[in-house]
Design a protein that fits this description.
Elements lengths: L1 H34 L5 H10 L9 H15 L13 H6 L8 H4 L20 H14 L3 H4 L28 E7 L4 H13 L6 E8 L9 H10 L5 E5 L6 H10 L5 E4 L4 E3 L4 H10 L3 E10 L6 E2 L7 E4 L5 E4 L14 E2 L8 E4 H6 L13 H11 L3 E13 L11 H16 L2 H8 L3 H5 L11
Parallel strand pairs: 1-2, 1-4, 2-3, 6-12
Antiparallel strand pairs: 4-11, 5-12, 6-7, 6-11, 8-9, 10-12
Helix pairs in contact: 2-3, 3-9, 13-14
């Protein structure tokens, strides 16, 4: 009898021991998954969400993104993300400081074979391809691909070879990055933020200001607020919300009025900065505060999210008397002694240029009477020329940009709004002989009415 009891006790002990080992193994694997499986914990949540079958939801990717952001905020319970306990000033002043967010702290140590890593594109087949194409039609960009790509992915070095050895001054102005957005897809917006944090020197990045121009997507409301609070150091990313949509020009101005850095840089919400992108811009502004320095835009393909650039080539911008903005090349006499030398600019794109914050105010900022979108880039270039400024291209500053159709609605139609804005710029900055060149192309623009320009410097 005693022998039987002894055998039973040994079996029970072995059973309990096996259960205990299994529990420890499960916990270890789970913790490893949370902390070390991949530098982008958020990205793993993406993979999980994307494999959920939601056949009843015609817009399942939208729901998945909502679930994704909710999942990412719940990671805080594991105390892996404690960025909110650290201020941006503390992070700037302590080179050894970590944020607690692996997407920042372990940047560059992820799996290079992940989809989209190092700027590669994502191509789908079968049903996934059909879903991706449907969503491209809806959102003008492949959000299906974006959700598969790490939020903190690395990108290829797009600079001229001579840029890589340039020593920049240790004391440069600080920069406020202003990013207006309207219904930007969450993973694209967040990838813009992570590229800025991971590829910008801490000392130079003063703040990032997001201006929500009346977005309607619920994921960009409280869920985005919670994500920013729990994943970035305090004081780095601020969000300003406009209750009613004002348009790009007014949203940029709102960001400018709330900025405090030495230099302001306007961004779109679908960009990824390249290596050492900021120092070349700030170097030009420091040398002459009336210099407006433009980065070189690379291409993020809207259908695959591939980061694409043309090696050893740089685009110059121009316009004609039809006020058509176009890309062209630099003449040999504009290149300078080396490919990486600063080049003269004629006109600018709307984003990715650096300007001294006080000088921007002295010039009168943007024309506040312009509507929605269009023409502000031409008007700003003319304003710089005629207010004693200088516009330049900085070849060593590269920034990826998703070129896609505008998400704005234009009361009265896009052409009417653009020509309204163009006429405001033409009447303020051009002499009569040059006005006629414009009005010969657009006779109806000549008789169109505009409101007085409230920001024309006196």
């Amino acid at each position: 009898m005693l022998r039987v009891k002894s055998v039973r006790m040994r079996c029970a002990f072995r059973y309990l021991f096996c259960v205990f080992v299994l529990i420890l193994t499960f916990i270890s694997i789970h913790l490893a998954f949370i902390s070390d499986r991949y530098v982008g914990v958020f990205h793993n949540s993406i993979q999980d969400v994307f494999h959920l079958k939601q056949a009843h939801d015609k817009h399942s990717s939208r729901q998945k993104l909502s679930n994704l952001i909710s999942l990412s905020t719940k990671i805080k319970r594991y105390e892996r993300f404690s960025a909110s306990a650290l201020t941006w000033e503390q992070y700037q002043n302590d080179p050894s400081a970590i944020t607690g967010n692996d997407l920042i702290d372990k940047y560059g140590r992820g799996d290079p074979g992940l989809p989209g890593e190092n700027g590669t594109g994502v191509v789908f087949q079968g049903e996934e391809r059909s879903e991706a194409e449907r969503l491209i039609q809806k959102y003008n960009v492949n959000v299906y691909a974006s959700d598969r790509i790490p939020l903190n992915r690395m990108v290829p070095d797009a600079r001229f070879k001579g840029c890589r050895g340039i020593p920049y001054a240790t004391e440069l102005p600080t920069a406020s990055i202003i990013i207006p957005f309207f219904d930007e897809w969450p993973s694209i917006l967040l990838r813009t933020l992570y590229s800025l944090v991971n590829r910008t020197p801490r000392k130079l990045l003063h703040e990032i200001i997001l201006v929500d121009d009346g977005s309607l997507m619920p994921e960009l409301g409280k869920q985005l607020d919670d994500y920013l609070v729990t994943h970035f150091p305090q004081g780095l990313v601020r969000i300003i919300r406009v209750p009613e949509r004002q348009g790009l020009i007014q949203a940029r101005l709102m960001g400018y009025r709330n900025s405090t850095g030495d230099v302001i840089i306007f961004f779109d919400s679908h960009m990824e900065v390249n290596i050492d992108w900021l120092q070349p811009l700030l170097t030009e502004v420091k040398a002459d505060r009336r210099t407006v320095a433009m980065g070189s835009l690379d291409y993020i393909q809207l259908d695959t999210m591939e980061y694409k650039f043309y090696k050893d080539y740089m685009t110059r911008y121009g316009f004609d008397w039809r006020l058509v903005f176009f890309e062209t090349f630099f003449r040999a006499d504009q290149v300078g002694p080396r490919p990486e030398s600063t080049r003269p600019g004629t006109v600018m794109v709307g984003a990715a240029y650096a300007i001294d914050r006080k000088y921007f105010g002295e010039m009168g900022t943007y024309d506040e009477g312009m509507r929605v979108w269009g023409g502000e880039n031409l008007e700003m270039a003319w304003r710089i020329w005629l207010c004693g400024g200088r516009l330049v291209h900085a070849p060593c500053s590269h920034i990826g940009h998703v070129a896609r159709s505008q998400p704005y609605t234009f009361p009265g139609g896009r052409e009417a709004v653009e020509q309204y804005n163009y006429k405001r710029a033409v009447e303020v900055w051009m002499e009569d002989e040059h006005k006629e060149l414009i009005y010969n192309t657009f006779p109806h623009m000549k008789v169109a009415e505009t409101q007085p320009n409230p920001t024309h410097p006196s």
